[in-house]
Amino acid sequence: MWPRSRTIVAVILASSLAWIDLCSVAWPREAAKVAQKSRVPRKGTVGCDRSKFRIVLDVGHTAEAPGAMSARNVREFDFNLGLAKRIEEKLKADGFAETSLLVTEGKAKPSLFKRATAVNDSSAKLVLSIHHDAVPESFLEEWEFEGRKSHFSDRFSGYSIFVSRENRKFVSSLNFARLLGLKMKKQGLQFARQYSQPFMGRYRRKLLDKNAGIYQFDHLVVLQRARMAAVLFEAGSIINRDEELAMSSPERQDMISAAVTEAMQEFCKLR
Length: 271
Ligand SMILES: [Zn+2]
Fold this sequence. Notes:
Layout: H1 5-14, H2 27-37, E1 55-59, H3 76-93, E2 99-102, H4 108-121, E3 126-133, E4 141-145, E5 148-152, E6 160-163, H5 170-186, E7 206-209, E8 214-216, H6 221-225, E9 229-237, H7 241-248, H8 250-270
Parallel strand pairs: 1-2, 1-3, 3-9, 6-8
Antiparallel strand pairs: 4-5, 6-9, 7-8
Bound molecules: zinc ion.
């Protein structure tokens, strides 16, 4: 979610209001209300036909505007595509036959609106946007990797999950986000805590759930425009050198795919 240099400009434009600072909201009371309203109901009370439960896995960014660059100079888009394919395989193997990947082409700004249109044409029950995290440019440090000047930040790590209050299925989105966060936690993974901190400045977000690692990000285009439940998932950091290696490993990708699949099983039952 942190494209550098030229692409960051495009994404800022694309999200237009995406980076609006929400710091002035009365957070704790508001967060408590949200937590109460969207408490995850008991599972298994409603039937779930996995074979008909349509899911879109939206691969973040495009080949042309590939998002962040990892500490070892791999494009975020490549990480997103690899993980999304693995999640797709796992979901299909689990009976979610109507799972599809959404790979969008083109420049950053038009691609956001294109993908929102594609998602709304899909009649999916849920769209899950797959991303990998980095840091704002001011936090980057220099190092050399395989003889090439590169950038990293080992300061932060972890996954994070974003939902938009402007999504028309906000409560449903939050329910899935919570299930996903709790499954990630069950896998022993921790969420990225920096987004709620004042030093994040305009990138600071409201933490909606401190157990599951869910932040509010109202103006993300796909979440805002999707007519179904929509969640953006930063699966882990690729600018942190250790976590980048973990994110590249089949073991970590399997853990994350299992978390998404288990969350989906329970989310499907809630419908
Ligand atoms: Zn991204």
